[in-house]
Structure formats: structure tokens, C-alpha cells
Amino acid sequence: MKLTGNDLKKIGYAEGKALGLALTIIEREYAAWKPADQLNLLQRVKDDPARYIHDEKLSPLAMEILKPADSTIALEPAGKPYKIYGAEAIEEGAIHQMDIASRLPITVAGALMPDAHQGYGLPIGGVLATKNAVIPYGVGVDIGCRMCLTVYDLPVTLLEDNKEALKKMLVNNTMFGQATFKQPKDHAIFERDEFSDIAVVKGLKDKAWRQIGSSGGGNHFVEFGIVDIPSVADELGLQPGKYLALLSHSGSRGLGATLAAHYTRIAMDVCKLPQEAKHLAWLDLDTEAGQEYWLAMNLAGDYASACHHQIHERMAVGLRSNPLMMVENHHNFAWKEQDASGEEVIVHRKGATPAGKGVLGIIPGSMATPGFIVRGKGVSTSINSASHGAGRLMSRTKAKQTILPGHVNKVLTAAGVELIGSGLDEAPMAYKNIHEVMASQHELVDVLGTFMPKIVRMCGDEKFKEVD
DNA sequence: ATGTCC
Questions:
Q1: pTM, full prediction
Q2: What CATH number is given to the structural domain containing A235?
Q3: Which residues participate directly in catalysis (predicted)?
Q4: Residues of A440-465 as b/e, b for ≥16 C-beta within 10 angstroms?
Q5: A254-309: per-residue pLDDT in tens?
């Protein structure tokens, strides 16, 4: 009777290198022993491998058993092909990150938008369709970061004639960064079950309450401007002409940021990937954690929407005008959609605008350049997506080091833009040319109208200070 | 993006 692999499996050896090594050593060194004694020896090594690490015969086996299990999920050698829009203006790092994402075993398809730049895991401007799995960092840190545009039935001459009143309205009714309202407005979202059913969400309810209606930092803004509709746009319900409008860009604040960090940590624990892909760790949607993230992500998205609506409501009170229409869209989110063959896929848009056929969206420019009201064309090679803005031309660090405040102020004056506050890293020259970005994606969206910023508020309560 | 290190 000779010892077999099955005998070893019965005493707890899993299929793998240790099992093979055990059989080899037994055959070579312990052939004279009775099978029962051989098995007994292997059992002892299995139970207490540390005792055998200096054993001249059993050391290799003991070392192998002691080695941490290598459960790393391998990337596919070749990625799924994906289309890059505006490749000539996209940094190398973003394309490298998309290459890695295209090689995940869960990846079905991908696309890179013309405003893409490097992020954590999936690049900003990256779109990734996966099979039954969600990547928290494929959604992004600011879950549900979105745009909201309200067009008012008011003349654009107010922007000049009532400029000071409009500025004051922005200052009094918007809060950025750490600042929050003394009296937050209640909202139906706080009745959602997720706030009681999911422990991590429950712990964030107070913070969400304090921050509702506020805007974030970085590239978030609330601004008055002019919507220009060149020809009749039935889906907007607007006649051609110019309208006073309010555009906001913000996300899910501390709620979304904390949820993103929480579920990314869980994903990285349960989904070990090679170093270069580790931030792309995913949650299987059939697992409890995956389903919980999905609920929490949707809550954060609805909370971001609620924040925008409160911003616009507060402004409407001051304007004493009812909105003619609103357009809004998430651009950091994941959706269950159908691919070209009708299969359900999870589409991650991390800094990308949904652009399914007929879907309306807003693609902002910079504080001194127009944004665009768009209607998706439903192009499958872009996974029904478009860019979410102009995209950064330089990093925040480089912008702060190289851009001169005096130069920014001249550009703003030339564009007729009044700035209440912002950081230098949000200066127009830190961004790519929005017109070139739009040209790179003309096959993805139709432009229905433009929005030119006129009175802008971002995080930071002072204009750019000029120093000698 | 962010209670910017529970």
C-alpha cells in the first residue's frame, strides 16, 4: 500500500504544492515506513509545522505549510479592448490605469473619456463594465458627485443690474468645505431604512444631517450664469434664447467619503489583487458586503441629489422665481445596465456623464469657460458615456506652484466672471480646453445648449490675492 | 473628494 494524495486530503492537506511535496518526501525518505506511520508523521507536520522547520528531511514541507496562502487573484494576460476618446491629450498614467482595469477577470468592457486623468484605481474619466461585481474605487471617493442645473424664468440682465444682490444670495445660501448651515433643512432622505439597517450608515446620520445642503471643496461650485439655447430643444421645454440659470457641482460630502473608505477596505480584504491593481478590489454582488455597498452607494447618491435640491431651493427663495426646468446627473456612480448583447452589467462611471440615447446631462467647463447641456447618443463603444468636464491639465500641486493670481484675475475679467472665492488649483488654466474635449466626443453627445458662468462661488472665501 | 490619521 502506497500513500496517495487522497489519504493526505483526509488529514487536511489541500490540493497544492504542500501536498505534492509531502508525497515526494515520503517516497524518497520514508519509503520503508508503514503507511499508517507515514500518515501519522505528515499529520504531525501539518498540525505543528514550526517544530519541523529545521528538520533535515521535513523542513521544505514545513516551510511550505507555513507560507501564507497565496490567494491573489491574477489579472488576465490580455485586457478587454477599450476605446480612448481624445487620447492625444490624456496622460500616460490614466491610460496605464485603464489597461490594468481592462485586465480584471470581472471586466466585460471599458472606455476612457477625453477628460481622463490619473486617480486611485480606476482613472477619473474611466468607464468600466463588470460582471456582477462592484469596485468601490471604480465609483470614486465622492459617491454620487453630480451636476444640477436650474433654468429660471428671469432675464439675464439681472446678472449685471443685480449683481451684488445675487452675490449676497450665493454667500448666504451656500456653504463650502467645513462650513455648514446653523439650521439644516430636513429632508425625506433621513427616513430611509439604510440609516437604521446598516451600521456604518447609521453612524453617519448625524454628520449627514449637519452637512445637508452644503457643497464640498476642490472642484465643487455653485454659480449663476447664462444658459443659451440656440435652437428649439423640445426635451428641455425651452424656446431659443438666453436664460438666467444656476449650476451646482457637489457630492455626498462626509457620508459618501466615509462609505467609500469603509467598503474599499472590505473589498481589499476579501479581494486580493496584484500590487498595481489593489485599489480595484471589488465586492461580489452576491455577497452581503456587496449588497450592502450597493444600498449604501445608492443612499449616498440620493443624498448628493438632496443636497443639490436644497441648494437650488434656498436660491429660488431669494430669486422669487419658479424654475422653468432642471437637468441633473451623477458622474461618480455605478449602475445596473444592459450591454449590447442584452446581458446585465455593472457600469462604473468614475468622472463620466451617462450618455445613453436621449439621456440629458451637464458637462461643465471651468469657472471662465462654458459648460454644455448635452443629450446622449447611446454609443456602445463609450458604454453610453461622455466626459464629466474639461479634465485637469495640471495637478493641483503644480497649479498652485505655477499659476499667478494676477493672471487668473485678468482671465476672469476678460470672461466677465465675478468670483466670490476659490483655490488657485481651480483656475481656468489648470484645465484642458473644454472645446477640444467636446470635439473629441462629438460622436457621443449632442449639444442642446451652453451655460456660461458669471458669478462663481467655490471653496475659499476670498478672491485670488495678488502679491508683489 | 474627505471628521484630509480612530
A1: 0.87
A2: 3.90.1860.10
A3: 388
A4: bbeebbeebbbbbbbbbbbbbeeebe
A5: 999 999 999 999 999 999 999 999 999 999 999 999 999 999 999 999 999 999 99
